[in-house]
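We recall that each integer encodes one residue's backbone shape. We quote one record:
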Amino acid sequence: MGELRLEELSAKTIVAANNLTLRRGQEQFVTPPSYAIADSFLNPATSWPRVVLDGDTVVGFIRGNFDPDAVQEEFRSCVWRVTVAGPSQGTGVGKFAVLALAEEAKSRGFGRLTALWEPGEEGPEEFFLRVGFTIVGQTQYGENIGALEL
């Protein structure tokens, strides 16, 4: 890995972000990148879509959401989507993206960043726990709610 950097999602990077491929078995735990990318344009005032670049190559995508008025606390400052290309997983790309999102949340005055994930063997739970999230609850659909105190 070279030096990682974030860049706002743009016409230049959107195709690469949409074509990120996961490891086998992970697809069931994430919405396709095209959905996450489309979501980011529905609420531009609260959405924070970024790609992670290694040199000129898009190796990840993260979308945060910042809505202090959200009815549900877990959606006020949250990781909405994070996708890391299969070959780049385990190299620090995801951690880099989530910690950058955490810094953005902190700079906006939030004291906590949340994430929701579906439990499962190939799911992202271990990743979120390694980054520093703790499980603080569960949704009515059985997803874990994790929180990272900032």
